[in-house]
Design goal:
Shape: extended
Structural class: alpha+beta
Number of strands: 49
Helix content: 10-25%
Number of helices: 18
Oligomer: single chain
Distance between the termini: 105 Å
């Protein structure tokens, strides 16, 4: 291949020489945009025409070249600018520029100009030339070349868009503006089996395709590309694109990315009404059915088919366009589509040809497009002048040459990739119970569930090339079609399996895609002509297997490309399908445990469970797809070039061992086609290729050593595969969720009401925190601060209500230790523990553990909720506590005992340091005289300086206790209704029952938690310390005679508030608890009656187990039979305590 240097190209460009007619015959052609050192010309056949290098609309550093056969280089003509509009003898003016001359010179430059027209004088016989339109991109048409760049141009200032300012140089373009034969990137005779007549006008679209998914992917100048050429008589093929020389200017044709649009309508105006106008070319023998080349900004693609052209009722024209338009110009309206079945019926002697090329590499362009046809010997032994070969061996060689190309810059494989993490299968209900641990056997081996999750990534590095040639009219038909599609796969993944029960997976389970939508990139489409979509996805399928299964494990696996290259597919006759994979074995790929046993469901191969994971890449091809019947008329052609690399993860057992195998079935490669090529359709075979790897055992041990007992998973999302393949044996019992799982179906429970806002169900008068110290995370649709991990927490503001409508003021709590999921508090308070439910799965167990699992989330817990102090403060000022959702309003029993505002208001002595107002206090009376009574109480509740009274509580338990403390419905009616906890149906109802029971058991658990030794002692100590501070305050008031000799009584009011509000709220929560327990018992008792005699034995057993659990929960906390079960231990609370009320 001949190459030429940048120096030579620029020298040719600067010579200002043009030739007589580059468009004579079919001999000269124009290349694509390329760097100078990459433009190839066939050795000894073509040379660069004089002035045949030009910038056109190419990217920086790239050029187009006009090339002609070596023996037909046109004669050069020289050109030069004259000093006026006259040319010397023997020269002809092809263009005029307006050169500005200075008339008046000033100190700051020229003050006044005039313009002098100057002719561009060349030898006679040149093709028509014109200045490029500055308002349309300042570029030459595709059938022209740029012969000069001039700073003056038509305006005197180049392409100046601002009066008086120099613009960029204007392009002078030469060629055939009347479109007798626009330049193609290659010789027209190289494109078609039958050479079109010289009078036909070829139109072409050449598109350099970039990645739409990853802009970081760099491709070469011709990698990849799409190329379509349409050639036909001027009565059937016309140009309406201004850039290609049309005098038509479109007014309102919007670009569109909507392929589903059937018909477009656009307005246009003819800008030339002279005899040279080409506006009416589209009307030759009638506009309807004419294929038109459209402007880039119009519609979705380059070519459209005219339905109708008529004068438009909308005659609006932009002002700047109207100034240049003919005086009597008529605005027309064209309606067009991409339905090429509507094209005029051309004659068999002069059809409309179409050539379609699509390749991923520059080498395919050189092999299939920029390549002359082969020559063939005649019967006499002489070489024929021209022969378009349908010899499959020649095309096979072109494909082989493309695959062998080593030019790394523009022949690299193109990557398409996808990440995924998807629930593949989940059966959480079977004959032993419903979903996700609701009604389940406590023995894991009989739980009857299976969850499968797949995560990982896949990269498909692709190479392809397709060439098709045929006719649009008189018939839509492809004469020849050749192509190939190759893939190198790289992937890594993990299959996670957790299941227990009896499996029975039949033959023929469905295969589905992991990704909800295929990954498509580097695609090329021209609606109605051709669409090419390289696609990627991963298919999954459960393979036949059966037996007893108990497994909780992961298997990691990788797929590597073979050192021998890609996996290949070819159109018929282009060679064998080939390919293999690299070494796949991963050591330490297995993690977890599994046990299995044969039963009547087991096959002879001992397979208990098997999943097939199949990365797939394929080229989806559609041609002539927009017929009137959507392709039902047989005009639409389709093809898929497909490559699949299946991977099997198999659990197998014999009588004594269980193993997990990573296996590699045969690679599958195929070409499936209809209505494109009969030879393509003849190859209906699935080609199976040896992957080159043996099955690899990743785990093996004796049976009987399965995983530990566990709670079945409940993974959110819709599984890819559906089906009932798991059953179980044994009797079921209710099995509760751990608290950490409850927030998945009751997110309200995580609201921290010491935060910004209380629950909306609380009365507006209930004291709650105000603006919090950081931008909180909210549970959607609810109020309250999410209990995420916090660092050292600043103080939180709370409202205190003044009596008699006096408004509110703010008090702020002390900072406290938090963070590290409990580690921060444990570092300063070893007794903080991690408080949780010890036997979470047992709904009847409410045992407290201080050593909860680190995998759960914990919050620093104030045993006395922080709202307690500001609410008690308001109570002391007003003698009243407003109602809540679970408690009536409360007024002090000591009607004459309220604290005056001047003693406990926002600026009172209560908020001032002891030393400032009680200077005569005996030494040692106050632990810190530089602290106010207000601050001393906040410190007593737990702070940075007093972390010993704080503990770590699992955050769901913390949130539930917070609701009970405030007498807010810990389980609101809205939540009960939203979660359908009154439902008693066979599957969903049993799931809902388990959810409700799991949360209901937190009522008695919170009481047990408050009675746990450390927690209860903290509660007593904090309450007593606050009482002591109030006693100090009462004594200081009396000592300084600040209440006119009357008793202040804050200690008495604190004790009254704590007994009659705090304790009563906590113990009163049993009312809501028993209400909901009885409600569920009534619902399920009715379900039992309806299903007796049982129509579904398992459902009937489920109902009985639910009722058994509900009755045990009711009886364990029955205030009649067990009066102390729902009581907070107050032993040691307050010296000489007031009686509990």
């Amino acid at each position: 291949m001949a190459r030429f240097s940048l120096f030579c190209l620029l020298a040719a460009w600067s010579a200002s020489q043009v030739h007589a007619s580059w468009s004579e015959g079919e001999n000269c052609y124009k290349t694509a945009c390329l760097p100078p050192d990459q433009i190839d010309l066939p050795d000894g056949q073509s040379e660069v025409a004089a002035a045949g290098i030009f910038r056109d609309n190419c990217p920086n550093g790239q050029y187009r070249v006009v090339a002609c056969p070596s023996d037909e280089i046109p004669v050069d003509w020289s050109c030069q600018w004259s000093t006026d509009t006259n040319c010397p003898a023997g020269k002809t003016s092809i263009a005029t520029r307006n050169l500005r001359h200075c008339l008046v010179q000033g100190n700051g430059g020229c003050l006044q100009y005039n313009s002098i027209p100057e002719a561009y004088c060349c030898d006679p016989g040149l093709p028509q030339c014109n200045w490029a339109d500055c308002f349309s991109g300042n570029t030459c048409g595709t059938n022209q070349v740029e012969v000069a760049l001039d700073n003056s141009g038509t305006s005197g200032l180049g392409c100046s868009f601002f009066f008086g300012f120099q613009g960029p140089p204007q392009e002078l373009c030469c060629g055939d503006a009347l479109d007798t034969n626009p330049f193609l990137p290659v010789d027209l005779s190289w494109l078609y089996p039958t050479l079109p007549p010289d009078t036909d006008i070829p139109r072409f679209e050449f598109e350099h395709i970039e990645s739409q998914l990853n802009k970081a992917i760099e491709v070469g100048p011709l990698q990849p590309f799409g190329f379509i050429v349409i050639d036909g008589p001027n009565t059937t093929v016309a140009n309406m694109a201004k850039r290609d020389g049309s005098h038509i200017e479109f007014l309102d044709c919007e670009p569109s990315t909507k392929q589903d649009l059937k018909v477009y309508t656009a307005r246009y105006l003819c800008m030339n009404d002279s005899d040279e106008s080409n506006c009416d070319d589209v009307h030759l023998e009638g506009a309807e059915g004419t294929i038109v080349k459209l402007p880039e900004e119009c519609g979705y693609a380059s070519y459209g088919v005219v339905h109708e052209i008529k004068p438009s009722e909308d005659t609006r024209v932009p002002h700047e366009l109207r100034k240049r338009a003919p005086v009597d110009g008529v605005v027309h309206e064209v309606t067009f589509s991409y339905d090429f079945t509507r094209v005029k019926r051309a004659t068999a002697d002069d059809p409309v040809y179409v050539r379609i090329d699509y390749g991923s590499q520059a080498e395919w362009f050189q092999q299939a497009v920029n390549s002359p046809p082969a020559k063939k010997r005649s019967e006499g032994g002489t070489l024929k002048e021209r022969f378009w070969s349908n010899n499959e061996a020649l095309w096979a060689q072109k494909i082989a040459n493309t695959r062998a190309s080593t030019n790394a810059e523009d022949n690299e494989l193109l990557p398409i990739f996808a990440n995924f993490s998807q629930l593949i299968y989940q059966q959480t209900s079977s004959t032993c119970g419903p979903s996700a641990g609701t009604i389940q056997q406590r023995a894991v081996s009989d739980d009857g569930y299976l969850s499968v999750l797949l995560s990982g990534y896949v990269i498909a590095q692709l190479r392809w090339g397709f060439s098709m040639v045929g006719t649009i009219s008189p018939t839509l038909h492809l004469e020849e079609a050749h192509g190939f599609f190759d893939t190198q796969f790289t992937s890594a993944g993990q299959l996670w399996v957790d299941g227990s029960g009896v499996l029975d997976i039949p033959v023929g389970t469905p295969r589905e895609h992991v990704l909800s939508a295929d990954v498509v990139d580097f695609n090329y489409t021209h609606p109605g002509i051709a669409t090419f979509n390289p696609r990627l996805n991963v298919a999954v399928q459960l393979l036949p297997g059966g037996g007893e299964f108990n497994g909780n494990f992961t298997v990691n696996f990788v797929t590597l490309p073979s050192a021998n290259g890609s996996i290949t597919t070819n159109s018929a006759g282009m060679g064998d399908f080939t390919g293999s994979l690299g070494n796949q074995a991963l050591h330490n790929a297995f993690n977890g445990a599994v046990d299995a046993a044969l039963n009547n469901n087991s096959a002879s191969d001992g397979v208990i469970f098997a999943a097939r994971i199949t990365p797939q890449s394929w080229m989806e091809i559609t041609v002539f797809e927009n017929g009137p019947n959507g392709g039902a008329d047989g005009t639409t052609g389709t093809a898929n070039f497909t490559i699949e690399i299946p991977r099997d993860i198999i659990v197998r057992t014999d009588e004594g061992t269980v193993s997990v195998v990573d296996a590699y079935p045969n690679i599958m490669a195929e070409v499936f086609s209809t209505n494109i090529s009969t030879s393509w359709e003849a190859d209906a075979e699935q080609h199976l290729l040896d992957p080159g790897n043996e099955p690899f055992v990743v785990f093996e041990e004796n049976t009987g050593q399965g995983p530990a007992e566990r709670i079945p998973p409940n993974i959110a999302g819709n599984p890819v595969l559906q089906g009932n393949y798991v059953t179980c044996n044994g009797t079921a019992t209710v099995y509760c969720y751990p608290p950490s799982n409850i927030s998945t179906y009751d997110p309200d429970i995580l609201n921290d009401f010491d935060g910004e806002n209380a629950d909306s169900s609380v009365d507006d008068n209930v004291l709650t925190g105000r603006a919090f110290y950081y931008a909180p995370r909210f549970v959607p649709g609810k109020f309250g601060r999410d209990l995420e991990e916090r660092a050292t927490a600043p103080g939180r503001p709370f409202d205190v209500t003044l009596p008699n409508g006096g408004g509110v003021f703010t008090t702020t709590s002390s900072q406290y230790i938090t963070g590290g999921n409990g580690n921060a508090l444990l570092a300063v308070n070893p007794q903080a523990g991690r408080y949780n439910v010890e036997d979470a799965g047992n709904c009847e167990s409410n045992t407290v553990t201080t050593q909860g699992s680190n995998s759960d989330q914990y919050a620093s817990e104030h045993i006395l909720e922080l709202n307690t102090f500001p609410e008690a403060w308001s109570f002391m000022l007003s003698g009243r506590v407003p109602p809540t959702t679970q408690s009536a309003p409360y007024s002090t029993r000591f009607s004459n005992l309220v604290v005056p505002v001047n003693l406990m208001g926002p600026t009172s002595v209560f908020t001032q340091n002891w030393a400032a107002w009680d200077p005569n206090a005996p030494p040692g009376t106050h632990s810190d005289v530089n602290q106010s009574p207000e601050r001393a109480i906040w410190e007593a509740m737990g702070s940075l300086l007093n972390p010993g009274v704080l503990v770590n509580a699992e955050r769901v338990i913390n949130g539930f206790k917070s609701r009970m403390w405030r007498a807010i419905n810990a389980i609101s009616e809205d939540r009960w209704t939203t979660n359908s906890w009154d439902d008693t149906t066979a599957i969903a109802g049993v799931v809902h029952a388990n959810e409700a029971i799991s949360e209901l058991r937190l009522f008695p658990f919170v009481i047990n938690y408050l009675n746990e030794q450390v927690v209860n002692q903290n509660l007593i100590n904090v309450a007593n310390r606050i009482d002591a501070i109030f006693q100090e305050f009462d004594a200081a008031i009396a000592r300084n005679n600040l209440n006119n000799g009357a008793a202040t009584g804050t200690s008495t009011l604190w004790r009254e508030f704590f007994y009659n509000v705090v304790i009563r709220r906590l113990e009163g929560a049993q009312g809501r608890y028993r209400e909901l327990i009885w409600r569920m018992i009534d619902n399920w008792q009715n379900a039992l009656v309806v299903n007796n005699p049982p129509q579904n034995s398992q459902y009937y057993a489920d109902i009985q187990q639910i009722l058994t659990s509900l009755r045990e929960m009711r009886d364990n906390f029955d205030p009649v039979n067990n009066p102390n079960e729902f009581k907070v231990n107050t032993n040691g609370l307050f010296p000489n305590p007031a009686p509990r009320r």
